[in-house]
Design a protein that fits this description.
Elements: H1 2-16, E1 20-21, E2 50-51, E3 57-72, E4 75-95, E5 98-107, E6 112-125, E7 128-136, H2 158-163, E8 169-181, E9 184-193, E10 229-238, E11 242-252, E12 257-258, E13 261-262, E14 268-279, E15 286-296, E16 309-326, E17 329-344, E18 360-373, E19 376-387, E20 396-408
Antiparallel strand pairs: 1-2, 2-3, 3-4, 3-20, 4-5, 5-6, 6-7, 7-8, 8-9, 9-10, 10-11, 11-14, 12-13, 14-15, 15-16, 16-17, 17-18, 18-19, 19-20
Length: 409
């Protein structure tokens, strides 16, 4: 494995030697889908790439590193340095209407390696395009638009990583399309892929936990139960207001039979999400938010700590306070930012008492970010969280400083 990674890096380095930045290689330049009309569904292509001469292959990526000093109820583990992810993109424009792109992520210094996206796109018409391969399921907006350099916060949103499985991808096929008319844009995506398995309730978290399914690498080889997962999204954008998206993901998650032997009834998982982003014209304030609802058919034999309903989301508010040449960086930007987030892993009440089932968390994260260029961000955050257990005991109070840097390359 290490030899393969080394060969890959050498190949990428040789391709990018004496290369030039080509940020439009994968952008659709047709009149109804120009880059100024990009939507969240375009995030996979809205990245800087390097291309050597006339080579059809382009590469890029991003890196994140951070420092944290966090404590819980007055107890701290001290100073921690991390490199949570290092991501490589490799793509090729095989034809003006045929494109391939892959995204490989090395997490925790290479401890985990995952292919998050590796798909071939064939463009028939603006409103009809085929995509096949390893697909990033478009549930909400963050799952697709998750690149570190795009965000002013060190950590990813909790609800999108600890309730929904962030960077959730599967093998499958589907269609997508987009159309702009004057200031209005419409986009859709619909895919059939492999999906979840019984680990969302049979896991070490002792709760309903969708991210546990990411540990099953066999989903890239076969379905765990022979049932497809459907993911669909509709999005509308107004150039003067912003973009709103509505998405759904659902299907059977358990293996209900084995070699014709019925083991259990077919149990469904359904997820609904809404996302929104806008930039206020007068103040250039950017507001980005997402909220999701999860519904799982949990077997009656499981305890009440396994919730059949979950919900959570976040809102980011980013206010540029200075745009100028700073320390030799032209068009540098200094931002004030704040994230509000909440997640409830078990929505409901205890059957015996009618009391609320807690198992929830809320957080507020004020911060300052400096962007010497649009593709690089330095971040200083203060994170404060309170997390309750299932019984609603006094919450654990978690707080600390986070400093990070993230950049495309």
């Amino acid at each position: 494995m290490k030899k393969n990674i080394l060969l890959f890096l050498i190949l990428a380095s040789s391709i990018t030697a004496n290369a030039q930045v080509d940020s439009s290689l994968f952008k659709d330049t047709r009149s109804d889908t120009i880059s100024t009309e990009a939507m969240n569904m375009d995030a996979v292509y809205e990245r800087p790439f390097f291309q050597a001469g006339t080579s059809p292959v382009s590469v890029g990526g991003y890196v994140e590193a951070d420092y944290q000093y966090m404590g819980e109820d007055g107890i701290t583990e001290g100073h921690t340095f991390r490199i949570p992810r290092f991501t490589l993109f490799v793509g090729s424009s095989l034809h003006p209407k045929i494109k391939f792109l892959s995204e490989t992520e090395f997490e925790e210094g290479g401890k985990e390696i995952a292919i998050e996206f590796a798909a071939l796109d064939i463009n028939f018409f603006p409103l009809l395009n085929l995509r096949g391969g390893i697909i990033m399921n478009p549930i909400g907006a963050f799952n697709q638009n998750h690149d570190g350099p795009k965000w002013e916060f060190v950590d990813r949103p909790i609800a999108m990583t600890k309730m929904l499985p962030a960077t959730w991808s599967n093998v499958g096929f589907g269609f997508y399309g987009k159309r702009f008319v004057n200031d209005w844009g419409f986009g859709y995506e619909i895919y059939l892929t492999n999906g979840f398995d019984n680990s969302i309730i049979a896991n070490g978290e002792n709760r309903t936990f969708l991210p546990a399914a990411k540990e099953n690498a066999e989903r890239f080889e076969e379905s765990s139960n022979g049932q497809p997962l459907i993911t669909a999204k509709l999005a509308v954008k107004n150039q003067n207001i912003g973009e709103i998206g509505l998405s759904y993901m659902g299907g059977i998650y358990n293996a209900s039979e084995d070699d014709g032997l019925i083991l259990d009834k077919k149990r469904r998982l359904d997820v609904f999400a809404v996302d929104f982003n806008s930039t206020l014209e007068k103040t250039t304030t950017n507001i980005t938010g997402e909220w999701a609802w999860v519904m799982v058919d949990v077997p009656e034999t499981y305890g009440q700590q396994f919730g059949d309903q979950q919900q959570g989301g976040f809102v980011d508010i980013v206010q540029p306070v200075l745009r100028n040449t700073i320390a030799g960086f032209d068009n540098a930007v200094l931002n004030l930012a704040c994230r509000l987030e909440y997640v409830d892993w078990n929505v409901g009440t205890f059957r015996e008492t009618g009391a609320n089932i807690s198992d929830d968390l809320w957080a507020i994260v004020p911060g300052i970010s400096f962007r010497p260029s649009a593709q690089t961000v330095l971040r200083l955050n203060y994170r404060y969280m309170q997390q309750q257990d299932i019984l609603g005991n006094p919450p654990a109070k978690i707080s600390g400083i986070q400093i990070g840097i993230s950049s495309y390359f």
